[in-house]
Amino acid sequence: MISRRAFVASLAGGLLAAPVACEAQQAGTGSWGRPWAPAKHLGPGTSYVVIEGNPNSGPSTVHARYPAGLTVGPHTHKSAEHIIVLSGTFLIGWGELWDPTKLKAVGAGEDIVIPAGVAHFSATREETVIEVKMAGPHSIEYVLEADDPRR
């Protein structure tokens, strides 16, 4: 099995082919000119913008931007999430152990539902923007404390 560090290193060759992000994203704003805020719970370089609702208190929709080469360790959420890939490719795997052989590509225009309480992990090869519709307040619990970028 390849480690997360080795997986990220293997992505370096493909970074030059990554598509250019839309002008609004490069300018530091998301949809409707709202600023992107850091998403420290997902790792360095990630950001999000709230589209509707309040992710701290109830149902909401956010756009999340992941940098090229990001890996997010196995984690769970207390409420279900419906993800639509807006640009790039979102790689997702299921389980409590990081295993890049389990990563499945979800491309722009495709969607996936992550049930509440189901452990999963993710990665990106290129900058990727997703829309996340959450059924309830946002929460993230990492399986391994060492994977939590807030620590």
Structural topology:
Elements: H1 4-11, H2 23-26, E1 37-38, E2 47-53, E3 60-66, E4 71-76, E5 81-87, E6 89-94, E7 104-107, E8 111-114, E9 120-124, E10 128-134, E11 141-142
Antiparallel strand pairs: 1-2, 2-3, 3-10, 4-9, 4-11, 5-8, 5-10, 6-7, 6-9
Walkthrough of the structure:
With 151 residues, the chain is mainly beta. It has a single domain (4-147), classed as Jelly Rolls (Sandwich), CATH 2.60.120.10. The protein is built from 2 helices and 11 strands, in the order ααβββββββββββ. The strands form 2 sheets. The protein has a 6-stranded antiparallel β-sheet with strand order 1-2-3-10-5-8, with no helix packed on it. The chain has a 5-stranded antiparallel β-sheet with strand order 7-6-9-4-11, with no helix packed on it. A hairpin with a 6-residue loop joins β2 and β3 (60-66). The chain is globular and about 40 Å long.
Features:
151 residues, mainly beta, Jelly Rolls, six-stranded antiparallel beta sheet, five-stranded antiparallel beta sheet, globular
Oligomer designation: single chain
- How far is the first residue's CA from the last residue's CA? 26 Å
Element order: H for helix, E for strand: HHEEEEEEEEEEE
Q: Which parts are unreliable, with pLDDT below 50 for 5 consecutive residues or more?
A: 12-27
CATH topology: Jelly Rolls
What is the radius of gyration computed over CA atoms, rounded to a whole number of angstroms? 15 Å
Global mean pLDDT: 87
Helicity, as a percent range: under 10%
- The CATH superfamily bears the name Jelly Rolls
| Count of DSSP-assigned helices | 2
Strand order of the largest sheet: 1-2-3-10-5-8
Total number of β-strand segments?
A: 11
Q: What is the CATH C-level name? A: Mainly Beta
* Major sheet characteristics: 6 strands, antiparallel
Strand fraction equals 35-45%
Inertia-based shape: globular
